[in-house]
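Render this sequence as a predicted structure.
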Amino acid sequence: MSSNQLQLPKAILPIIFLVIIAIILFSKSFVTIEAGQAGVLWKRFGGGVVIDEPALGEGFQVIAPWNKVYIYEVRRQESFEKMKVLSSNGLDIQLDASIWYQPKYAELGKLHQDIGEDYLNRILLPTIRSAARSVVGRYTPEQLYSSKRDAIQAEIFEESKKIINDQHILLDEILVRDVTLPSTIKEAIERKLKQEQESLEYEFRLVTADKEAQKQIIEAKGKAEANKILSASLTDKILQDKGIEATLELAKSPNSKVVIVGSSKDGLPLILGNN
């Protein structure tokens, strides 16, 4: 084996090393950002997180190999949360809620610098839990179970939004999907609501019956008044004239009859028929 053959591997080693380094640097220079994502650029020798430039958009991006890109989901996201809170009288209540949120695109660099990628657990969820405890603590279990669900949903959203807005996060909506009360409390509330419903139905029947009675009284009064007016208008003269008219009509009838001329006690002729 010649000396040249022995020296050849030693000459190739630096080249192989440089090729490996080049491949590594080359692979780190290209970043693919998927649909619905954006990238925050971190410069190792340029001041760290870039906050004065727009975030890197979707597609193929070329960066210096010593820099780094942090990928964020910028579409609306949903998180399901079960929260244990206390009502105004100290009873345990469980809220099942959906939270719709997304990072503010224009403030993505500040979000990464101030909070980081785990902003959901660091900022968003603790804020919503705190707001839920504060809001639910104002209501009784009866109110939470029946008529106040929409109200607490809106109040939790508004209180959370006040804190979240300056944290580079956009809170779109909070939906309270379910309110779970202790079983004994729930049963007591259901019994109470049933009794109230039965009471309302009974009161409705009483009101309906009273209205029907009032209607009948009004109708009876109306008929009595009409009869009174009619009686007052029927004078003796009118009755006599009506009797004469009726007698004349009867006299025209072809049926056999006997007419007695004179007057009855009412001063009317008497007609006696044989039929």
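Summary. The longest helix spans residues 183-233. The two ends are 164 Å apart (CA to CA).
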